[in-house]
Design goal:
There is one protein chain. The chain is of the alpha/beta class. It folds into five domains: 90 residues, Ubiquitin-like (UB roll) (Roll), CATH 3.10.20.30; 64 residues, Ubiquitin-like (UB roll); 139 residues, Nucleotidyltransferase, domain 5; 135 residues, ATPase, nucleotide binding domain (Nucleotidyltransferase, domain 5); 107 residues, no CATH class. It is built from 17 helices and 26 strands. Strand 11 and strand 12 form a beta hairpin. Helix 6 crosses helix 7. The longest helix is centred in the middle third of the chain and has 24 residues. It starts with a strand and ends in a 21-residue tail after the last helix.
């Protein structure tokens, strides 16, 4: 008979009964406790920290021996994904992803668009019925508005509503459908643009008549406990009974929570929200719609749908006007989604004669190269390093994360900036890119990525000393960290290089480089060129477009023309499967070097490294060499 034990998670006090084969990370997911786990429970990220307060558990594994000090294990600290109960347990969660001060990307390029939404309001006084005019209420309304259909839920309430308002009404139309009827004082119509990200979800509440953003709210995606990346979530959805339904419920729950917060902030009734437009990667939108995305994970990587889908919001459980709709921006392929279509829409590269390169660096990396005549796209398996996984002291962009780094090449003194100005707890993606670039400029890492003897200070090069940090330990960059960063940057550059090669374009022929995505918008572009992540182009050609997914959804929300444009963009962009491309492995291996094995591809990076950082605009030391300009 299978033995069961009760695990109690503090500080929430939530309990769950699990078997001895279930680890604490699995147990936490079953009772809704969120524990940070960047590697999806494989034991490699060392982030899912808990402390056992009472009870007995399995012995520490080799992963725990690598990630934790003897003192930590002696005080009961364990990795949740490596620890199973052998008795009833009480554990305290030390690593929750819900941390105040998180840096969630909400800004983007402001584009002027004349509002022409699907939703309109019309005020009318209808002729009252008489013995000579016995038309049905529905026919009377359709005739006055010259519309063809009425939402069924509205139709059921129509007789009462028309008489309550004494036939003086404001009708809300969605295309040619009447979706709501109120009094003459009903108020305006609103919509929401939603960026459904793997890690975060952002909601923009918009006045559909003026285009004004009334409120912006963001939070972590509640699906995170079931997998930090989309592949882990696909595995959960196929392995667990009702797994897909659970992930759909969590995404919708996060959206509803943010809609509630945004409507309260803007003093807007949720019943006046009629259109919700969602953008995100193909897998996230599949989860949102309750479609099985599991076949995206295996060759030939086929998605359930890539089209623009429109459904009644009430069918999805979205808490807006019951007659309103939820729509999605179209996708391109299983791994190049609606978020990239939105990025392209915001950048305008699909309308330019000049060739542009777009790179969306978030949980994964996607690349688009082209102009108004031809566009190619690819997905780059950059891995989770830039999100903080597989990095010894890696973390998400939240308070206490080191986000900027510079090293004085003479004294090797380290200067850093943290999010929120707090004591450092770890280092996030933008800080990692700066750190690797700074190591290269200071001669502390060679072109193959090997740390020099000077850089090895115990476990690695120390960025912040223990006495300066919140965690009471040195925050270091190790040789393994450098290797993982090399893999990530090589994947991104190889994607760019192969698409440019297909288009017969050299880096100097690329006139615009658009960078989007949760991580991409915070990197220093010169640092990214120095390490060989971005092509070596004049830095003034590199433009950060912010939350392209959210802002592209806003364009589709506000304009029927932009909705059609997004559909045209999705059809126009051709997807290239890089793993099947001849020469992919060869180019990837060359891109592992810093900046690249073919130095002629990176003349600027070569010059900056050769000058020991003096030509890097970030490295502006004052005369004492003590301060750094973080502008």
């Amino acid at each position: 008979m299978e033995r069961k034990h009760t695990v109690t998670f503090q500080p929430e006090g939530l309990r769950v009964e699990v078997s001895e084969d279930d680890n604490l990370l699995t147990a936490s997911r079953r009772c809704g406790v969120q524990i940070e786990s960047l590697c999806g429970g494989r034991g490699s990220c060392g982030k899912c920290l808990v402390r056992i307060e009472s009870g007995e558990a399995t012995k520490p594994t080799r992963f725990e021996a690598q990630a934790l000090s003897g003192a930590e294990m002696g005080s009961g600290v364990r990795l949740a994904c490596q620890t199973c109960p052998i008795s009833d347990l009480t554990v305290r969660v030390l690593a929750s992803p819900r941390v105040p001060g998180s840096k969630i990307l909400t800004w983007g390029l402001e584009l002027k668009v004349k509002p022409d939404p699907y939703v309109k309001t019309v005020s009318k006084e209808l002729p009252k019925p008489t013995l000579r005019d016995q038309r049905s209420d529905a026919e009377r309304l359709r005739s006055a508005l010259k519309q063809s259909s009425i939402d069924l839920l509205l139709l059921r309430q129509l007789p009462r509503l028309l008489r309550e308002k004494d036939w003086k009404i404001t009708a809300t139309l969605y295309g040619r459908e009447v979706v709501d009827v109120g009094g003459l004082d009903a108020g305006g119509a609103y919509g929401a643009a939603v960026d459904v990200g793997t890690t975060t979800i952002v909601v923009y509440l918009v006045d559909l008549a003026s285009g004004k953003v009334m409120a912006v709210e963001s939070d972590y995606n509640a699906q995170i406990p079931y997998g930090e990346d989309v592949i882990s979530r696909i595995a959960y959805s196929t392995r667990e009974k009702d797994g897909l339904a659970t992930l759909q419920r969590l995404a919708i729950g996060t959206i509803n929570k943010l809609l509630d917060e945004a409507s309260k902030k803007a003093n807007v009734e949720k019943g006046r929200i009629y259109d919700v437009v969602c953008s995100g990667n193909t897998i996230m939108l599949s989860f949102l719609l309750g479609m099985d995305p599991s076949f995206i994970a295996t060759a030939p990587y086929v998605p359930p749908d890539t089209g623009s889908i429109a459904v009644k919001a009430r069918e999805m459980g979205i808490d807006t006007n019951p007659g309103g709709y939820l729509r999605t921006v179209p996708s391109i392929s299983g791994y190049v989604g609606a978020d990239v279509v939105s990025d392209v829409l915001v950048s305008g590269m699909h309308k330019k004669e000049a060739v542009s390169l777009l790179i969306d660096i978030g949980t994964n990396g996607e690349v688009v190269v082209g102009n108004k005549h031809k566009m190619l796209s690819a997905s780059c398996a950059a891995g989770p390093a830039l999100e903080g996984a597989e990095i010894t002291f890696g973390m998400r962009g939240m308070e206490g994360a080191i986000e900027k780094v510079a090293i004085n090449p003479e004294s090797l003194e380290v200067f850093y900036k943290t999010i929120g100005g707090a004591k450092p707890k770890g280092i996030c993606g933008s800080g990692l890119v700066d750190a690797l670039a700074s190591l290269a400029m200071a001669g502390l890492v060679d072109s193959t990525g090997k740390l020099t003897e000077k850089a090895r200070q115990g476990q690695g090069f120390v960025l912040a000393k223990a006495e300066e940090t919140e965690i009471g330990k040195d925050i270091t960059i190790t040789q393994k960290d450098v290797r993982n960063l090399q893999l990530a940057k090589a994947a991104i550059f190889t994607g760019c290089y192969l698409l440019m090669k297909k288009m017969r374009i050299k880096p100097e022929g690329v006139k615009n480089v658009y960078v989007a995505g949760a991580f991409g918008n915070y990197i220093d572009p010169t640092s990214a060129i120095v390490i060989g992540m971005l092509p070596d182009v004049p830095v003034e050609r590199i433009k950060m477009i912010g939350n392209g997914a959210g802002f592209g959804a806003r364009l589709a929300l506000l304009s029927k023309g932009k909705t059609k444009e997004a559909q045209s963009v999705a059809r126009k962009i051709k997807y290239l499967e890089l793993s099947g491309e001849e020469g992919f492995q060869k180019e990837f291996l060359k891109a592992l070097n810093i900046p690249h094995a073919e130095r002629n591809l990176f003349p600027t990076a070569d010059r900056i490294i050769g000058s020991r950082g003096k030509e890097h605009p970030f490295m502006r030391w004052n005369q004492s060499g003590k301060n750094i300009n973080y502008s």
